[in-house]
Amino acid sequence: MVDNVYLLIFYGVVLLLVLVASFLLFYIRNQSVVWKQKRQLQETQLAQQKELLNAVIDSQEMERKRIGQDLHDEIGGTLSAIKLMLNALKRQIPVEHVETLTDAKELIDKMIVDVRHISHDLSPPGLSVFGLFPTVDAFVTLINNTGQIKITMSQVGDVEALRLPEKTALALFRVLTQLVDNTIKHAQATAISISFQLAEKLSISYQDNGTGFDLEVLSKRGGIGMQNIQSRLQMVNAEYQINTAPGKGFNVEIELDYDQK
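RESULT FIELD:
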């Protein structure tokens, strides 16, 4: 009788353990399914956000291109016509007004150059023809000519021959011009260095000697300039690392698989 009781207790314990194990297995399996569904949902949301971002940036670039062409063709052409009219008028006005006319022509010349620079910045024509490095180099030359700051560029590997997809090249060009703009406006820097290295991946290093900043504080404030930079890099699947601190300057390291389509 006692043996039967012990046997019943043993079977009861075994049954209880089987039930507990079954419950744990069911719980773990259910949690795995839930976690997988959450991950799929997150991936779907990220993909949708990326598609939306691509659409917004594409729309912005189309508008930039349209405005740049209008500036170059309409405004630039009108200014050139006015300059020709002033040249014709120069032979007909009194000598005492010639100096004023000359000043007006010089001002128009400056406006023509400014319009050309703005239109090229809005829609850089060199990207599709010459590639990323020469286009950035031309932009750097323009900035150096202003005397606002000294920018140096360097390359390792045949970066000039690299031809990236148009969207990728344009995104990187926008990132670098935005970085230069941020440095000039906010960093109180005297020098910027931009280096390109082509190996298994395309690496771009941007460094200034400015005041630097607290990246965490800026992220909480929602700095639009840095958000645009990060969004464009994410759009082309570029890896990046930002290094900065108050009094330490600003540095960003960018890596891109340049074989991507």
